[in-house]
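Researcher: Structure prediction, please.
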Amino acid sequence: MSASASLDLSHVRLKHFRIEALDVLRGCALAAMFVYHLVWDFGYFGLVDRALPTSDGFKFFGHCIAVTFLALAGAGLVLSAQQGLRWSNWLKRLGMIGAAAAAVTIATYRLFPDSFIFFGILHCIAAATIVATPFLRLPAWLGLLAGALIFAAPFAISNATFDQPIWWWAGFGTEQPPSNDWRPFFPWVAFTLFGLAAMKTGLARGLPSWFTDWRATRPAWRLLALGGKHSLAIYLVHQPIFLAIIFVVVKLTAPDVDPEEAQFRTQCEAQCVANGGDALVCAKFCGCVVGELQSATLWRKVLVNALSPMERERLDVITRQCSRNAAESTPLR
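Model: Predicted structure follows.
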């Protein structure tokens, strides 16, 4: 590859400081995340099929978004250390991600105590940053090898012993814990190492100038690039804004929608799916439970956990009946 078609590591850093195409790519991932969370929010408020956010195809969409963010974190780590790793900047970045992850945990625990985020994408990026940093000084192939081992580990080590909550962060269990965003260390940290290895390889061989010199000249590209540069801040604020707007719209246009019912359904369906249930069956089951509890005047008591022993027996009967009805009414797919 000729000198005019590629740029070496130091030239990229000194001339551009950032690769704008990566900012745009991060912005595209952010836009995809907006779509993902909007659909989740619509399902939460019952504005779309409640089974959609937990369907296999939609979960795959979410996985693709997570892979993009994690890989870009690895690539960005390499670019930030081109002229040597500045530990003050590294600690500042890690501290910001860690604080953001803690804020997400606290906020979701208050809103969704049965499915709060204890090791989501931000927690994973923080852990991946620590793990990937030593590989900045090592050959790219070692980062790739380490990533491959981390990716393969849960498939080789998976055991019911790790189903205890203390091990949920690792990803070695046989069941998915109840959480609105779960990106365990194994295998997800692997994608940051893959991104790191890819960027190190690209810089060593010479990145093409069409990639490093590209500029976001159109308004749409500039907007995506701006979002990519401030992705952490946008990540933290977008969901509260979305939820607040949708809540107000729902209250104005459909005041009969009960947020407590929506939250109960969401948590019920998430737990049902986590226990191995089909998303469509789980949606029908939880809807049946809500309807039966309301008909039996047990709904408010369930919400405040004030059922008597006899009422708990009635609840058990309702859940068993709804489970049978949901399974029988859902055709095999």
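Model: DSSP finds 14 helices and two strands in the chain.
Researcher: Thanks, that helps.
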